[in-house]
């Protein structure tokens, strides 16, 4: 495959994946996705649409702000930084303006940059092609700060396969850029981790623990509403309704009230272990420098949960 063909193939792949992620799903899009055997499906389009809504709009939200901010959300500082990046790259606004930090915007940016690289190759403009590769590396490095945790959190059928394909394409692309001379950035100190919150301190209560566990930037993993529901069913414990942080608080109080606290901690430790094992496996292991921060936070979270296993009675009292 020539450099032009490789760039064109990546552009087409990213464009299709962005459309599949952002929806709405159509029969044509699903048929196009079947070029990867993992995305072949016999499910009805309506059933896929329901799964898509549950996975991406009600579950593992594909927004950088959910993963990179201490108070997870959209439309904050991370979205502003993404918007600044897209403007600097010259990415057409219709591809990102409604949600600058959405994964779809990142995929559209990569499609656009790969297309520009292909054009540069066709014009025999080597310097411009190299510039496009450098910019692709910049976008990928920003994306891969949080993409692994998102991929791991998506665990529902066809949507999980879609997330896996997205993850693999970005990793393989980044490795190809490394081989062409675009180095990885040095691992950065990516902010507060579990060590910054003493979960056994006298002034720490259920509310603070729930806030900590709801923030991937602090605990190293995303506990989706689906995960919370699964834990509740395993413990036969109510978790109420509302945002994830509220549900986690209710789950913590319910576990204390119904004497399932040790079992809850074991469930959470199991999720930490699963996430850590996934980060140390394919494809992320090939870019382990970009997962150092998440692995460090998971290590601290494990220690904090173990400390909570024998927590003070006053901590477990409902507030």
Give the topology.
Layout: H1 3-22, H2 27-33, H3 45-57, H4 64-68, H5 77-89, H6 103-122, H7 126-143, H8 147-153, H9 157-179, H10 206-213, H11 216-219, H12 225-235, H13 244-257, H14 261-279, H15 292-308, H16 313-316
Helix pairs in contact: 1-2, 1-6, 1-9, 3-9, 6-7, 8-9, 10-13, 12-13, 13-14, 14-15
Q: Give the CATH architecture of the largest domain.
A: Orthogonal Bundle
Uncertain spans, ≥5 residues at pLDDT below 50? none
| Main β sheet profile | none
Distance between the termini: 63 Å
Given helix and strand content, the structural type is: mainly alpha
Strand content: under 5%
Question: Can you walk through the features of this model?
Answer:
The chain is globular and about 70 Å long. The longest helix has 23 residues, at 157-179. The mean pLDDT is 90. It folds into 2 domains: 3-179, TorD-like (Orthogonal Bundle); 194-316, no CATH class. The protein has helices at residues 3-22, 27-33, 45-57, 64-68, 77-89, 103-122, 126-143, 147-153, 157-179, 206-213, 216-219, 225-235, 244-257, 261-279, 292-308, 313-316. Helix content is 64%, strand content 0%. It has 319 residues and is mainly alpha-helical.
């Amino acid at each position: 495959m020539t450099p032009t063909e490789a760039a064109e193939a990546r552009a087409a792949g990213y464009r299709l994946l962005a459309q599949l992620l952002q929806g709405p799903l159509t029969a044509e899009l699903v048929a196009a996705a079947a070029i990867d055997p993992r995305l072949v499906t016999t499910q009805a389009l309506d059933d896929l649409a329901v799964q898509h809504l549950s996975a991406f709009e009600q579950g593992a939200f594909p927004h950088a702000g959910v993963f990179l901010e201490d108070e997870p959300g959209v439309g904050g500082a991370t979205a502003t930084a993404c918007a600044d990046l897209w403007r600097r790259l010259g990415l057409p606004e219709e591809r990102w303006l409604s949600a600058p930090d959405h994964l779809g915007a990142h995929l559209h940016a990569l499609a656009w940059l790969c297309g520009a690289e292909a054009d540069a190759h066709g014009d025999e403009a080597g310097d411009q092609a190299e510039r496009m590769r450098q910019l692709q590396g910049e976008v990928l490095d920003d994306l891969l700060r949080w993409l692994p945790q998102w991929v791991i959190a998506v665990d529902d059928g066809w949507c999980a396969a879609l997330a896996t394909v997205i993850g693999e394409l970005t990793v393989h692309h980044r490795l190809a850029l490394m081989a062409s001379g675009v180095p990885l950035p040095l691992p950065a100190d990516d902010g507060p981790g579990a060590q910054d919150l003493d979960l056994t301190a006298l002034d720490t209560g259920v509310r603070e623990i729930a806030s900590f566990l709801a923030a991937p930037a602090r605990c190293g993993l995303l506990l989706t509403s689906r995960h919370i529901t699964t834990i509740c069913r395993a413990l036969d414990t109510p978790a109420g309704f509302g945002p994830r942080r509220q549900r986690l608080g209710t789950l913590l109080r319910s576990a204390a009230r119904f004497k399932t606290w040790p079992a809850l901690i074991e469930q959470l430790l199991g999720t930490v272990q699963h996430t850590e094992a996934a980060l140390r496996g394919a494809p992320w292991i090939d870019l382990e420098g970009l997962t150092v921060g998440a692995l460090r936070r998971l290590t601290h979270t494990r220690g904090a949960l173990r400390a909570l296993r024998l927590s003070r009675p006053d901590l477990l009292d409902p507030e």
